[in-house]
């Protein structure tokens, strides 16, 4: 009985709130956000994206006044979570997701996904994670050249693991194949940690992996090269870039991580989200915690990100066009 | 004899279902379906053996492991569960749960439906959901589907 | 020994409070049908933000330990396993309860859990660096054969015939393949958008076990069998302890299997209980007693799934590879605290790491003590009228499914599978093989596909899967397991035939 009255009160309250919302909508909403914000992470709990997202959003209550709640929706290299964002979430700014560039852009080009850069809105970027070439501790390869030479003599017999199809690691592999004129066998796995396990256990000869993950397991792997424009002075000052080693590989496989939402969210709310998130990512504690995990930071706002997304899209279109269709088919068919 | 025929019927239905899985696995004719195809073929194989065994005369394939479905008792529950899914997102989890819980204990109570029983049921339902709400939503901040109510 | 250096910290002030409260809360959450250990650990992660690092980890560790053990209570009393780990416990635990030995079953369950748990944690403490290399040795071919070995367990999963069990297992595997191809990333069998995320283990487990039980309970209530169907007998604790300790084979098989399965990364530590149960049954002189209330079944299964907890943390803490969904969530909690798996964890963060492992050890003992204490209150649980129990289980099933991923699709999948299972059970199919298939299907497929790719780059797929010591050993075990099941089936059938022909003759004459 008591309960029922409570329920009635709730309806009444809900009615009032809806009415108020209707009245206010259109004008600037000073009270956004007034509910917890859901953050979809398209990878399973414990992976690099997951824990970085958790750390990066941990100060949400300070900067937004509301917590950000992480919801893991793993599957198909991220497709499940991002499809969910554009298909099932509401455009009120309470449903956002962590993105990985170039993964989601590449997937939107190669697969029949519901999302692409036109129906997603960037919010802010927190980290950059370049792909690094790693081999097991006991591997005979000590430099990139060793590996390339071996691959030249044994085409198709060098196995390279990475965190899935069309993720940064895969793109780096394709770039290396094109640049060095070699043929590698790319093995997509369920995620960065799995790909790393294959290298550590000697199941594959080499692998491309996240700098942050490889950095933390240097007791079991050797890092041969970094697919970025410059060396990483902070974490791996001794590891050469591919350019230095004589392979013209740029930074297009670098894994950018940040927050995005579906299109349709009002410009005011996007602004609130973006500005708040930039401040949050610049928080000293957040920065310190992310650094402890070996994740290089680069905080970017909305405008900068829009540009970056476009750039990546254009580059990836070009890269995939340069692959001959047979090779692509083989990639999709590989089993 | 009766049960013998029933066994054959079960075996045939199983075979049909397995063939349905196989059809679903082979129809798309795209790469990436090899493992489901293998699985479905194994299922068809097992079901075929079951059918063969069911036709061996005078030997029950299985022990008496099949029971009739008590339709008379379960159809209200099926309706309640289906209704639950139907209404949940629109009405909100706790409101829907209240109705479902109340209906189940009312319908399946061994006593006849009476006003006293209904009031008692409503109170028990309220208590159960109240505790659930306090522990998980108020304290642990679990999210539940929210509709026009809670 | 570092452990003793940090043990005082574990047992001091707040940490002890957290341990005790965490144990009790974990046992209660685990004992609530529909709420999984994965959900419990995930729920408590936000609370660890406000705590200091070691307290936060202690909370997560103790909840993991206690919920797995608590899941056995529902398995025994209500026939609904709290987590995949408890399926095997249910097979003999519930029959024991129905024949008036509920207290005894609960005693064995917590005593064995405690023993297994301590063994698992000791393995974690003493052998982590050694075993990390062992864990890394498992590549796609080995994991594929382990998945196949897991599937051969179906033969002894209860159910009525091996054939129906195998068929249910195959259907389970097929169901697990809905969603996206794990390697190529292409869509498969997505008949509706609800199936995008595929069928994951927790909705499947809750649906397949809890929903048929709801049907069963309302049916009982309607027929006037709504009261309690069995009582809690009085049984002195020491008698249980003495008997439990005398079952050396069940304890041994349970802990060895639990530790091995827990160590292997990605093998799904969840099947440890089932494999141990199966092995113990095969070694038993009296395998027919299993499934009808054999204490050894409960002991082997519970020892195994608790020793798995500690062992599954070996690859997680040293390599960052979680062995079960719950361990994955736990790993998330670890990373947020700024603790990264690897050797650094034991050097740079030695105090946190050792406090955590010390706390796990203590939590195993606390779990046993409080579990035995709490099991006394089970008599109130079984007095709840069936219709109330049914309603509560139905609501909790929806609640527990939704809150794992905040997904309505999962709830729909859970309900659909549950109702379908109820009808399938009327035709002699059991839910155990289906769940096993759902757990093992993706492991088998992913590793088969990856193994094929690696094999092509090396000396050929066939050679990749059929050479190497570990592969051959696993294949041998698979053949042995299948051979045993077939032989056992023929024996049972031959005896049935003798009996039934005997009867026919009587009728005719």
Automatic annotation (TrEMBL), chain A:
Transmembrane segments: none
Protein known as: C4-dicarboxylate ABC transporter substrate-binding protein
SUPFAM superfamilies registered for this protein in UniProt: Periplasmic binding protein-like II (SSF53850)
Record CDD domains: PBP2_Bug_TTT
Gene3D superfamilies: Bordetella uptake gene, domain 1, Periplasmic binding protein-like II
Domain of life: Bacteria
One Pfam family from the record: TctC
Keywords: Signal
Signal peptide: 1-30
Similarity section: Belongs to the UPF0065 (bug) family.
Species the sequence originates in: Billgrantia endophytica
Keyword Transmembrane found: no
InterPro entries, per database record: BUG, Bug_dom1
TrEMBL record, chain B:
Keyword annotations from UniProtKB, A to Z: Membrane, Transmembrane, Transmembrane helix
InterPro entries, per the entry: DUF1468
One Pfam family this sequence matches: TctB
DUF1468 domain ranges (all copies): 15-145
This protein's record includes keyword Cell division: no
TM annotation in the entry: 38-56, 68-87, 93-109, 121-140
Protein name: DUF1468 domain-containing protein
Provenance organism: Billgrantia endophytica
């Amino acid at each position: 009985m008591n309960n029922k009255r409570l329920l009635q009160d709730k309806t009444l309250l809900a009615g009032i709130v809806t009415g108020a919302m209707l009245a206010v909508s259109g004008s600037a909403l000073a009270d956004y956000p007034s509910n917890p914000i859901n953050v979809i992470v398209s990878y399973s709990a414990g992976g690099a994206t997951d824990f970085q997202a958790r750390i990066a959003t941990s100060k949400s209550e300070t900067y937004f006044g509301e917590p950000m709640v992480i919801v893991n929706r793993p599957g198909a290299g991220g497709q499940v979570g991002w499809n969910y964002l554009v298909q099932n979430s509401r455009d009120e700014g309470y449903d956002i997701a962590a993105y990985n560039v170039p993964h989601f852009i590449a997937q939107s080009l190669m697969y029949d996904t519901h999302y692409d850069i036109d129906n997603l809105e960037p919010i802010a970027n927190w980290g950059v994670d370049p792909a690094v070439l790693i081999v097991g501790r006991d591997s005979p390869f000590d430099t990139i050249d060793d590996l390339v030479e071996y691959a030249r003599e044994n085409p198709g017999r060098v196995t390279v693991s990475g965190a899935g199809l069309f993720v940064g690691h895969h793109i780096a592999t394709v770039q290396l194949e094109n640049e060095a004129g070699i043929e590698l066998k790319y093995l997509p796995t369920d995620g960065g940690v799995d790909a790393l396990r294959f290298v550590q256990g000697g199941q594959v000869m080499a692998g491309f992996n996240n700098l942050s993950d490889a950095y933390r397991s240097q007791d079991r792997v050797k890092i041969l090269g970094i697919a970025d424009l410059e060396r990483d002075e902070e974490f791996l000052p001794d590891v050469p870039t591919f350019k230095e080693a004589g392979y013209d590989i740029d930074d297009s496989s670098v894994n950018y991580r940040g927050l995005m939402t579906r299109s349709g969210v009002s410009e005011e709310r996007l602004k609130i989200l973006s500005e708040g998130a930039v401040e949050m990512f610049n928080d000293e504690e957040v920065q310190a915690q992310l650094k402890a995990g070996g994740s290089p930071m680069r905080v970017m706002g909305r405008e900068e990100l829009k540009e970056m997304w476009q750039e990546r899209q254009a580059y990836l279109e070009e890269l995939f066009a340069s692959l001959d269709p047979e090779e692509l088919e083989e990639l999709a068919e590989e089993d | 004899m009766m049960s013998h025929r029933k066994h054959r019927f079960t075996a045939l239905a199983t075979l049909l279902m397995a063939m349905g899985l196989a059809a679903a696995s082979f129809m798309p004719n795209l790469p990436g379906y090899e493992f489901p195809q293998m699985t479905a073929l194994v299922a068809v194989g097992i079901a075929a053996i079951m059918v063969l065994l069911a036709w061996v005369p005078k030997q029950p394939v299985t022990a008496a492991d099949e029971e009739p479905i008590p339709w008379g008792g379960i159809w209200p529950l099926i309706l309640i569960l289906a209704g639950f899914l139907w209404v949940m997102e629109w009405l909100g989890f706790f409101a829907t749960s209240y109705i479902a819980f109340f209906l189940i204990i009312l319908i399946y109570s061994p006593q006849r439906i009476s006003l006293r029983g209904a009031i008692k049921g409503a109170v028990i339902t309220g208590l159960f959901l109240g505790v659930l709400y306090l522990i998980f939503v108020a304290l642990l901040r679990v999210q539940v589907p929210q509709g026009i109510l809670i | 020994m570092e452990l003793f250096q940090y043990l005082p910290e574990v047992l001091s002030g707040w940490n002890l409070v957290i341990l005790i409260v965490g144990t009790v809360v974990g046992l209660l959450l685990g004992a609530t049908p529909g709420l999984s250990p994965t959900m419990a650990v995930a729920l408590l992660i936000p609370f660890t933000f406000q705590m200091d690092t070691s307290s936060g980890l202690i909370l997560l560790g103790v909840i993991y330990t206690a919920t797995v053990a608590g899941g056995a209570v529902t398995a025994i009393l209500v026939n609904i396993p709290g987590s995949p780990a408890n399926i095997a416990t249910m097979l003999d635990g519930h029959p024991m309860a129905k024949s008036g030995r509920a207290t005894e079953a609960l005693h064995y369950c917590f005593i064995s859990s405690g023993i297994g748990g301590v063994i698992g944690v000791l393995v974690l403490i003493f052998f982590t660096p050694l075993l990390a290399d062992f864990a890394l040795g498992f590549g796609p071919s080995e994991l594929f054969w382990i998945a196949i070995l897991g599937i051969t367990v179906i033969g002894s999963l209860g159910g009525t015939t091996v054939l129906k069990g195998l068929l249910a297992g195959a259907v389970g595997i097929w169901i697990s393949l809905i969603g996206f191809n794990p390697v190529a990333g292409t869509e498969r069998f997505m008949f509706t958008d609800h199936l995008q995320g595929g069928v994951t283990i927790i909705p499947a487990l809750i649906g397949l076990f809890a929903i048929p039980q709801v049907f069963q309970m309302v049916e009982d209530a309607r027929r006037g069998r709504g009261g309690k169907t069995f009582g809690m007998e009085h049984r002195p604790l020491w008698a249980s302890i003495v008997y439990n300790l005398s079952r050396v084979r069940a304890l041994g098989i349970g802990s060895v299997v639990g530790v091995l399965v827990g160590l292997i990364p990605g093998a799904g530590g969840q099947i440890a209980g089932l494999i141990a149960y199966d092995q113990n049954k095969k070694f038993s002189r009296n395998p027919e007693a299993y499934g009808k209330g054999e204490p050894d079944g409960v002991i082997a299964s519970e020892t195994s799934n608790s020793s798995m907890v500690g062992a599954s943390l070996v690859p997680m803490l040293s390599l960052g590879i979680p062995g079960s969904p719950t361990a994955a969530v736990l790993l998330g909690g670890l990373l947020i605290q700024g603790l990264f798996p690897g050797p650094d964890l034991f050097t740079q963060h030695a105090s946190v790491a050792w406090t955590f492992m010390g706390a796990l050890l203590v939590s195993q003992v606390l779990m046993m003590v409080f579990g035995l204490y709490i099991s006394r209150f089970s008599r109130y649980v079984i007095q709840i009228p069936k219709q109330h129990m049914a309603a509560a289980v139905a609501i909790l099933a929806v609640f527990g499914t939704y809150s794992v991923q905040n997904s309505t699709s999962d709830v729909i999948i859970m309900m659909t599978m549950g109702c379908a299972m109820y009808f399938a059970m009327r035709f002699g199919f059991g839910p155990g093989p289906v769940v096993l298939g759902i757990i093992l299907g993706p492991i088998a497929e992913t590793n088969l596909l990856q193994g094929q790719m690696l094999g092509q780059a090396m000396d050929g797929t066939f050679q990749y899967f059929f050479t190497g010591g570990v592969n051959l050993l696993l294949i041998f075990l698979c053949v042995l397991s299948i051979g045993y099941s077939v032989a056992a089936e023929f024996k049972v059938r031959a005896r049935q035939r003798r009996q039934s022909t005997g009867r026919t003759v009587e009728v005719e004459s």
